[in-house]
Write a structure and sequence with these properties.
248 residues, single chain, 7-stranded parallel β-sheet, Rossmann fold, alpha/beta, globular
Length: 248
């Protein structure tokens, strides 16, 4: 038997990196998974990689109509939801003097607004208000990083949202927790750093107490824990999986 036999999970941003690794593990443990992505080709490839018990739903979480389509699909195909992994997000590197309104709105529309309404629109699908909601934070939300202030602020907002949401859901069995990765090798880092990626990773190792960067499976393992009954008394927690960076 798998840990998630018969469970239904939704993962936003499920086409690569942490989202894809988590989707693969959920399916391996018996769950049926819905994943989202903005690019149809990448979504199709992710569905192919996962192989079974998966539906890909194209969409942008910053658009309300795309979220409606996602959860209408879940309700039509499965009727309920047990696990939500609100993972979709984006970021860019701009120091204070170069921050633009466009960058601000793009980042907050996805990372904050998109997350808020992903969670809100998912709530009616949780039977008896019981299940697990996991949101992707970041060590950038609690530590300073040069040129990463807008992204960091958007992730700090996630931390504060969850503090209040667990009070909104008081008296239910719906748990909400945050997974906050440190430096993890994902395709998003290629987009963010480009030709400077290798230099960044070498520098990052110097700041990480464990002396190395993380792998996506180390994050998805923690996601499995937060989604499972093994974490049944954890609620409102920010779980750092970062080699120790946030603690020093």
């Amino acid at each position: 038997m798998g840990k998630f036999d018969g469970k239904v999970a939704v993962i936003t941003g499920g086409t690569s990196g942490i989202g894809l690794a988590s989707a693969q593990q959920f399916v391996q443990e018996g769950a049926y998974v819905f994943i989202t992505g903005r690019r149809q080709r990448e979504l199709d490839e992710a569905v192919k990689q996962i192989g079974k018990n998966v539906t890909g739903v194209p969409g942008d979480i910053s658009k309300s109509e795309d979220l409606d389509k996602l959860f209408e699909t879940v309700e039509r195909e499965k009727g309920h939801l047990d696990i939500l992994f609100a993972n979709a997000g984006l970021g860019s590197l701009l120091p204070l003097g170069e921050i633009t309104e466009a960058q601000y709105y793009k980042t907050f529309d996805v990372n904050v607004k998109g997350t808020i309404f992903t969670v809100q629109k998912a709530l009616p699908l949780f039977p008896n208000k019981k299940g697990s909601i996991i949101l992707t934070g970041s060590t950038a939300g609690s530590t300073g990083m040069p040129a990463f202030s807008i992204y960091g602020a958007s992730k700090a907002a996630i931390r504060q949202l969850v503090r209040s949401w667990i009070l909104d859901m008081k008296g239910t069995e719906l748990r909400m927790n945050i997974i906050s990765p440190g430096t993890i090798v994902t395709p998003a880092y290629d987009e963010l750093f480009g030709s400077k990626l290798d230099y960044f990773l070498e520098q990052a190792k110097n700041d990480i107490p464990l002396g190395r960067v993380g792998q996506v499976e180390e994050i998805s393992n923690a996601v499995m824990f937060l989604a499972s009954d093994e974490s049944s008394y954890m609620n409102g927690v920010e779980l750092f999986v970062d080699g120790g960076v946030a603690q020093v």
